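Researcher: Good morning. I'm working through a list of sequences from a screen, and I'd like to move beyond sequence-only analysis. For each chain I'm collecting a predicted structure so we can compare shapes side by side. This is the next one on the list. No need for commentary yet; just the structure.
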Amino acid sequence: LAVRDRLVGEEKNQGIQRLSFNTAVEMAEQCGLGMIKGVSLNVEVTAMLQKFHDLGVVVWYNKEKLRDLVVLNPQWLIDAASTIIRDPKLHPMAQDPKIRV
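Model: Good morning. Structure tokens for this chain:
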């Protein structure tokens, strides 16, 4: 749980929305992971991130092109995607520039 607290703390205290897999590995090691004999730190962090993803704490996919991105705030990702797929004339948001119709 120390790693989860550290990941959530990075987002809440420093406004960091995402980090690399390697940074997550470093944080996990600083929190004491990687001490199980016969289990590599990367395997342990992979299992941890998958569990956190399943619980909705982070967004992380163990796929080749997505593996390096750990999103600490799932809502941030949803907001970013919604700005791409929505029509600002139909669904304006406060941060939108004023649109003349």
